[in-house]
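Exam revision sheet. Question 4 asks you to relate a sequence to its structure. Input first:
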Amino acid sequence: MSEITTPEGANSQLGQCLKAARQARGLTLKQVAERTGMALSTLSKVENGLMSLTYDKLVQLTSGLKMEIAELFNPAVAAPAPGRPVTARRSISRVGQGQVITTKFYTYTYQCTDLIGKRMVPIVADVRARSLEEFGPLLRHGGEEYFLVTSGRVAVHTEFYAPEILGVGDGIYLDSTMGHAYLNAGEATSATGVCLCTSEAPDLYDQLRQIASREVAPLGGDELPP
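Answer key, structure tokens:
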């Protein structure tokens, strides 16, 4: 399929969102063209509201920029934030709600997934693995994170430090690029905690989901595919 040329102004929102998303990432149109494989002239027409894009081109564009398609149609998400303007975004997570990834040794429930482009990803973690052999390779991803134990005892293993045991109410803040793992160190079948991951990367949620999905064992319900 090809792009569809439309009257001037008809696609102004798409153009404005593309420009805002590009500027928020500090990219020129030429750099966007290089990353996406799209023609510079096409991108220029889109930004100026002179051209629309078919779905396959939207996928090509957003994949190259590592962003979600919805960002191109939501000015509040795509707009850069000089002076940190109020966006009035809000999301409530109810008990039992969230997108779930379950494996034999842990369950991650991602909260507030209706918000796109989050710079912070909240996760409720149910930890069952008791050894690194069970858990698998240490996790690594961009940004930083904070883990707060809400039940049981959790052993925190990191790449450069000796393991630490955390009890209910204890928390740890760490560099997420450092290898790390949370293990069950209590007598109960599992330990639970709340993990807040943050990064400047706009695709942090996708990164985390791909990492967590490495050994998915689907159990039905809201579990995510790998």
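Marking note for examiners. Residues 124 and 194 are 5 Å apart (CA to CA).
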